[in-house]
């Protein structure tokens, strides 16, 4: 990792380098993605099965594309009972946390006879995308599906790429069953996003698509937005640790490495007021790397997007954290709760040395699907509201409208919309 003094120049260089990881930077793949989407939109299942054969080396047809109940039962048999029990505990924690987010419809009636309100209802069909192969994460299945279930979504479908033999990662299938997925389809990539966005003979059109994926999946979600709602266009994972001289270097190093192992584009940043801690963390990283299975990936990640910044003051360190707006922010200081009050931008905030980031990834309950690439400045973690839609309610009596009809007519005429004005005026003609 690069160790630098934090100043305005190094901060700007950091922000510029992080922007290179934005999915919007990979425009060279957009034409390929758009062609896949258009083919699936026009040709439906045929295109879907052709792409599955081409990219996944799996031959499918309408009779094989849906995961059967027997396949799910077989998946349970392939996993350890302990792991299944842990997934159930995690799902319960996620459910309890997200139930606190649910809001109810409301109505307000005034004495003049006017009624205003908001009707809040779940979307009807939600689609979740789950990567396959070495990037299969059952935890993401839980995080995508449980909030939708809490919201009351009637039908949840899942798409995930098959292996060449037509099988699906057993952890993915068991997590889907625990979370409450209604149907699982063996399709992946941009073609799966297109199928859920437009519908095919086998796969229904959904109202919203959530879930992570590679650059082709991210660009497909971006291209289909508007035809369907999406959670976000997620970039590579990232962590920023904000620490002072009370932090333990080994803990900090371990937490930085936990995100760097995701892929070569992942970012791990330490901002500290202690040169001593910076040096110790750098040494600990080298020691820990000797024991980690994904050390090659981690080294590339740290070489490209790993930083240790030494700040003159905690105020400077906090300013840098707010500028980066990291997906995951750990605060390991003498008073983390006080520091937290000054944080404006972060996807998830972890307080204290025993609140390591993987706690949020797997078990605590808050959603681990978080804004990346500095979008925490204006986006939020996936939540129950993402699966809800809101309708405004307006009901005026004659008495209530009579009090304000001239104001409305004036407003409409100022915008040269005389038909709007007339729509109100005719109700009070002599």
Automatic annotation (TrEMBL):
Pfam families: Histidinol_dh. SUPFAM superfamilies: ALDH-like. Zn(2+) binds at residues 259, 262, 361, 420. The active site is at residues 327-328. One of its GO terms (molecular function) is histidinol dehydrogenase activity. Keywords: Amino-acid biosynthesis, Histidine biosynthesis, Metal-binding, NAD, Oxidoreductase, Zinc. It is an enzyme of class 1 (oxidoreductase). It catalyses: L-histidinol + 2 NAD(+) + H2O = L-histidine + 2 NADH + 3 H(+). PROSITE patterns: HISOL_DEHYDROGENASE. Its cofactor is Zn(2+). Pathway: Amino-acid biosynthesis; L-histidine biosynthesis; L-histidine from 5-phospho-alpha-D-ribose 1-diphosphate: step 9/9. Belongs to the histidinol dehydrogenase family. This is Histidinol dehydrogenase.
């Amino acid at each position: 990792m690069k160790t630098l003094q934090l100043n305005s120049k190094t901060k700007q260089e950091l922000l510029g380098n992080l922007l290179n990881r934005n999915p919007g930077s990979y425009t060279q793949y957009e034409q390929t993605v758009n062609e896949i989407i258009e083919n699936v939109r026009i040709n439906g299942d045929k295109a879907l099965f052709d792409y599955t054969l081409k990219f996944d080396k799996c031959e499918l047809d309408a009779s094989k594309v849906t995961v059967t109940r027997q396949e799910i039962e077989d998946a349970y048999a392939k996993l350890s009972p302990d792991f299944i029990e842990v997934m159930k505990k995690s799902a319960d924690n996620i459910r309890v946390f997200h139930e606190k987010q649910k809001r109810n419809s409301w109505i307000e009636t005034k004495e003049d006879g006017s009624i205003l309100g908001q009707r809040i209802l779940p979307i009807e069909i939600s689609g979740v995308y789950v990567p396959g192969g070495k990037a299969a994460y059952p935890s993401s299945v839980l995080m995508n599906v449980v909030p939708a279930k809490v919201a009351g979504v009637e039908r949840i479908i899942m798409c995930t790429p098959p292996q060449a033999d037509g099988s699906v990662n057993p952890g993915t299938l068991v997590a889907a069953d625990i979370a409450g997925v209604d149907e699982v389809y063996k399709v992946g990539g941009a073609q799966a996003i297109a199928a859920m966005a437009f519908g095919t003979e086998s796969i229904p059109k959904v109202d919203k698509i959530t879930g992570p994926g590679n650059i082709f999946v991210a660009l497909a979600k971006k291209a289909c937005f508007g035809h369907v709602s999406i959670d976000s266009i997620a970039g590579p994972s990232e962590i920023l640790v904000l620490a002072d001289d009370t932090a333990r270097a080994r803990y900090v190093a371990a937490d930085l490495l936990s995100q760097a192992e995701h892929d070569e584009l992942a970012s791990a940043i330490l901002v500290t007021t202690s040169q001593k801690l910076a040096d110790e963390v750098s040494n600990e990283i080298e020691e820990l790397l000797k024991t980690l299975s994904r050390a090659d990936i981690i080294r590339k990640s740290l070489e490209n997007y790993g930083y240790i910044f030494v700040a003159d003051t905690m105020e400077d360190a906090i300013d840098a954290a707010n500028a980066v707006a990291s997906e995951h922010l750990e605060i390991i200081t003498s008073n983390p709760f006080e520091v937290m009050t000054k944080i404006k931008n972060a996807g998830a905030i972890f307080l204290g040395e025993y609140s390591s980031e993987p706690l949020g990834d797997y078990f605590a309950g808050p959603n681990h699907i978080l804004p990346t690439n500095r979008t925490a400045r204006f986006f939020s973690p996936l939540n129950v509201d993402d699966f809800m839609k809101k309708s405004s309610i307006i009901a005026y009596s004659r008495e209530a409208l009579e009090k304000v009809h001239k104001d409305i007519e004036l407003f409409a005429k100022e915008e040269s919309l005389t038909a709007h004005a007339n729509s109100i005026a005719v109700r009070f003609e002599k």
